[in-house]
Write a structure and sequence with these properties.
heterodimer; A: alpha+beta; five-stranded mixed β-sheet; B: 16 helices
Chain lengths: 301, 432
């Protein structure tokens, strides 16, 4: 494999263009001031064979100071304009040696991956569980500290879809370089679906299967019947013996109740251990999960 | 009458353990700097070797972290800060001041022992893989301030006052203030590289036979305090004073620029003999100018957010470190004939100046791009897309290390086998 060469980062935020322009203008101005001084020095050469007169030094310094103050003012304007919009999405980042734990507005969590909506102002809120960290988003030209017992924030608008680098630049400890991840900027529609846990183009049955896996239903409801909860294979449509005596037909209504309020009708031979999923599943997710449960084939019951 | 003849009298154990002869002290300090620079530069070379390829395969992450800490603290505290004020300074009191001893000889010995203790602390922490050498920092900074004070007082008896005197006099309060700000606010030691520039600029002024306006040196000496100062303002001052926080750092970045541009112009337009010392001083000025130019980008808030803690910042501080380091070499070549009693190896000096100019730029210009691309300052691995730039940088560091070894090696060789020189000890400024 031949090593590859890249010289400039992508511009993934409105701020990025401003910062790049400021950097280039600063370098151009520096070259200009060097040339100006050299020109002045040539003029003074015959008058002052050793050293340059104080007037040249003072005059040049005043001009340079004025240039530098103008650059500082421009720099402030760039920073302030970028942070002006009212954020539409708020996302929490908790730094911990050695990962970024991320939580979105509707509770969706991820690690070392940051999904962002395209074109909308977002606010990242940062804190740390241990050492001080420094979140760096080079494609967005942004950095912010993440410190224990304090929230800091970072506001910006992602302007380009794609994958960008996310890392800790703070020398937070010996394995700091492991705190790397990726920012995934997606169309807002896709981001909203992603936050709700949907995958674009996914059928309800596929979503239900994914939820069944991600909620780890089968860690208790083991298919072989040996788990802490009863096996769910062939459950739909069967008749279930209850702990308090009596039976119930396992239809839509019973399954829904058992997910949202598991303690109401516990199966005979089992303890009421299952947590409630009330508020943790949207209606569409619940329906998808029910649709998948109906497809489970019978096992030992 | 050469100092080499007049003062190299005693070789007793006592004269080595408690030297009062400034030339002996100077030799001890230079030897100490070289002794600590060797492992610190070797550590730097190993770090760059690790970064020659994207995978973090040569060093474990904790080993990389520990070596980074050792390289940084040893170079700053044991080499860049002390070598010019003490190593060149104690000699300069005889060369420039005509004194046969420093104003406070016991203080001079004490500060050397403090420096050795600081060095031992750095080495001990390398063994325990503990990156941060706080004790070394305090000891070295105390030693530095005592030395600067001692030499400034000694040189102060001479008329007209040499630029090197002013540089040292202005460094002393700045060193004390920097020590206080590190102790009180835990502020970063990195601005102290700028502090090491002030004595280096004194040496360059001596070599280029220039008397820069004092206000420029004063502004430069105050520059390392600006980061702490603006931090104090952000904590305590009302928001209306925010403008100072915005404007002061860029103005501070301008302080070395004015002097460096002055010397660049002087080298371009004025006729002079390009001795090894002048060539090395010219390289020092060039490297300093690159560092100062990058410093302005780091001082503007919008670009600072993007570039802080990246390879860009690393390149900035290493250009400044290169400026101080080559100024130290230039000073050694400048005063060598009266220090060692032998002619300096002129050709090797000029060759090493050329190597250093090219290799230091090859090492650090790619790091400006790497930093702008977002590569952090201290990480053992990186994305494959950054491989070319890192490879060039590593090769540059390798060549630069060879260039430094060439200069130091030929100087040492000339002290043993060089042609005898009885050049009288004077300041160039006396001959105007």
């Amino acid at each position: 494999m031949t090593p590859s060469l890249r010289l400039f980062p992508e511009q993934a935020s409105a701020l990025a263009a401003g910062v790049d322009a400021l950097a280039l203008a600063t370098i151009a101005l520096e070259v200009l001031f060097l040339v100006l001084f050299l020109f002045g020095a040539t003029l003074w050469r015959h008058r002052a064979p050793r050293g340059f007169p104080s007037s040249l030094m003072a005059g040049w310094s005043l001009f340079a100071a004025a240039g530098v103050i103008a650059l500082a003012a421009w720099s402030e304007r760039i920073s302030k304009t970028a942070a002006r919009a009212e954020p539409a999405f708020e996302i929490e980042l908790v730094a911990k040696q050695w990962a970024w734990k991320i939580r979105h507005g509707q509770g969706r969590r991820e690690i070392n991956e940051l999904h962002l909506p395209l074109g909308y102002p977002v606010r990242l809120r940062l804190t740390s569980e241990d050492a001080p960290h420094l979140l760096a988003l080079p494609a967005f030209r942004l950095k912010q500290v993440a410190e224990p017992a304090r929230w800091t924030s970072l506001e910006f608008v992602p302007t380009r879809p794609g994958e960008f680098e996310l890392l800790c630049a703070g020398r937070c400890g010996p394995y700091c370089s492991k705190m790397r991840g990726v920012v995934l900027v997606m169309e807002t529609r896709d981001y909203l679906a992603w936050v709700r846990g949907e995958v674009p183009g996914e059928s309800p049955l596929e979503l239900g299967k994914r939820l069944y896996g991600s909620l780890q239903c089968d860690s208790c409801h083991r298919p072989d019947g040996a788990g802490r909860g009863p096996s769910l294979g062939g459950l739909f449509g069967s008749t279930v013996m209850l702990r308090e005596g009596g039976t119930v037909l396992a239809g839509d209504e019973y399954l829904r109740e058992s997910i949202l309020n598991p303690g109401a009708k516990v199966v005979a031979g089992y303890e009421p251990l299952m947590p409630s999923f009330q508020g943790r599943l949207s209606e569409s997710q619940l329906q998808a999960l029910l649709a998948f449960l109906k497809t489970l084939e019978g096992g030992p019951r | 009458m050469s100092v080499a003849r007049s003062t190299a009298s005693s070789y007793t154990l006592r004269s080595w353990l408690f030297p009062s002869d400034p030339r002996r002290l100077s030799g001890l300090y230079l030897a100490t700097a070289a002794a600590f620079a060797a492992p610190a530069l070797a550590a730097g070379l190993v770090l760059r070797l690790e970064l020659a390829t994207p995978a973090g395969d040569l060093l474990s992450a904790p080993a990389f972290d520990a070596l980074t800490g050792f390289h940084g603290s040893a170079m700053l505290w044991l080499v860049l800060l002390p070598a010019i004020p003490s190593g060149l300074g104690y000699f300069a009191v005889t060369a420039l001041g005509g004194a046969t001893r420093s104003a406070f000889p016991k203080l001079a010995v004490l500060s050397w022992y403090l420096l050795v203790l600081a060095g031992l602390d750095c080495l001990r922490r390398l063994v325990y893989m503990d990156a941060y050498a706080q004790a070394a920092q305090s000891l070295a900074l105390l030693s530095f301030t005592l030395t600067v004070f001692n030499i400034a007082v000694t040189l102060g008896r001479r008329r007209p006052l040499p630029p090197f005197f002013w540089a040292l006099l202005l460094t002393a309060p700045a060193g004390l203030a920097a020590a206080a700000s590190i102790a009180l606010f835990g502020s970063s030691a990195q601005p102290l590289i700028v502090l090491s520039l002030v004595p280096a600029f004194g040496v360059i002024a001596e070599i280029l036979e220039d008397r820069p306006p004092l206000w420029l040196l004063a502004v430069l000496a105050a520059a390392p305090l600006i980061p702490t100062g603006s931090r104090l303002l952000t904590w305590t001052a009302p928001p209306s004073i925010d403008v100072l926080v915005v404007v002061l750092p860029p103005l501070g970045a301008l302080a070395p620029a004015a002097l460096l541009v002055r010397w660049l112009a002087s080298l371009c337009v004025q006729r002079r003999a390009w001795t090894a010392a002048v060539t090395l001083a010219g390289v020092s000025v060039g490297l300093g100018a690159c560092g100062a130019a990058a410093g302005l980008l780091l001082a503007l808030r919008a670009t600072n957010v993007h570039l802080a803690a990246t390879q860009f910042e690393l390149a900035h501080s290493h250009f400044l470190a290169g400026c101080t380091g080559t100024a130290l070499l230039a000073g050694c070549f400048h005063w060598w004939s009266s220090f060692a009693g032998r002619a300096a190896p002129e050709l090797a000096g000029k060759l090493s100046a050329a190597v250093l100019l090219i290799s230091w730029n090859a090492a650090l210009l790619p790091q400006f791009f790497l930093g702008y691309l977002g590569m952090p300052a201290h990480a053992p691995g990186y994305a494959p897309a950054l491989e070319w730039l890192n490879l060039i940088s590593s090769l540059g560091v390798l060549a630069a290390t060879a260039g430094m070894a060439l200069a130091v090696g030929t100087l040492l060789w000339s002290a043993v086998a060089g042609a005898s020189s009885l050049r009288p000890v004077t300041s160039n400024l006396d001959r105007q």
